[in-house]
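Think of the structure tokens as a kind of shorthand, similar to the way a musician reads notation: each symbol stands for something richer, in this case the local conformation of the backbone. In the example below we present two proteins back to back. Begin with the first one, reading the sequence and then the tokens, and try to describe in your own words what changes along the chain.
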Amino acid sequence: MWYKKRIGNDLRFFWTINNEGQPYFLEDKNLTLLVRDPIGPVVVSDIVYSNNVVAFTFYGKDQRKCGKHTAILIENDGDTQMRTIDIVGCVELVPHSYLEQDGNNGSNLTVDTINLESSVVIGVPGPPGMSAYQSAREGGYTGTLQEFYALLGNIDKMHVLLTQEEYDALEEKDPSVIYMIYEEEE
């Protein structure tokens, strides 16, 4: 489900959080909510949660750039047992009202309320260690980092992993894409 909303309007979100299909209760949790736009993260101060639903408003005054935005919920930010979940592309801000659409039928929206849902597996945090790629390499994986990310599905249309040479060879660079440059291992 995706939504296209005109930039500059207050948007109300209701985000249901589940852990392995069961409600993940949020009371008494130390939560931080961010909305990442193409420029970077914006801290959302108007956040209310009850049971397993987070309600927040992404104010028009805080919307800095058109494009796809990601909602990020962090438990215990910067502390032990920190957990993070996100919904990439929870809303796409567009420059004109006639471009507004919802993910169901493509019709213009009249209500600025967006319902989101996440089902995540929240494990017990362990000590810092190797990255998943390093661990895979140690276990015999022979592919490149880019191939590894593609296998995991971590690279979406907003993020493209390239070598510097591949980036330099692009004839046209899409301003809505975040190009990540990596060095090839020898």
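Once you have a description of the first chain, move to the second and do the same.
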Amino acid sequence: MGTQADIREETAGQPARGTSPEAGSAEQPAAGGAEAEAGGNKLALMLEDARSRADQNWEALLRARAELDNLRKRAERDVENAHKYGLERFVGELLPVKDSLELGLSAASEANPDVTKVREGLELTLKMLSNLFEKYGIEEVNPLGGRFDPERHQAMSMQDGTGAQPGTVSLVVQKGYVLNQRLVRPAMVMVAR
């Protein structure tokens, strides 16, 4: 006969008395099934959470795209308006000069025009225009007596016997203009030989 230790070893792998072998094996999968079910629920919750975050990110992406599209359209509209109406203020300040010229023309068209008054009106109109040019950064290029500069002057011809030093401007046929340090029109000049 074996000792109690031997009996315990033999019966360790067997189900307890009064239970069938099937009952013991059913409890083990039941415990494993509960764990699998809990793990499945956890995975389902994680999946639902991931889907929710993905939906939120998708919504944020769509909003960001729409905002960028609106920003691009607004910028295009602003540039278009700047091209269309960029000169509006300049034109508004130029109109009084035109009005003054029209008044001078009508005064000169009278039967007996007062030449002195017409001249004064023209001088005031020219002063208005000069002030407007100064305000908007338009500068006159009048190089009479100065050195010829091919960057800012256009030589019409060369003149002999003017008494001026060679290479200097002896006559300005048409003044040039610079807008904010950029040449708009070169001065048309005669240059001494």
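Compare your description with these statements about the second chain. DSSP finds four helices and six strands in the chain.
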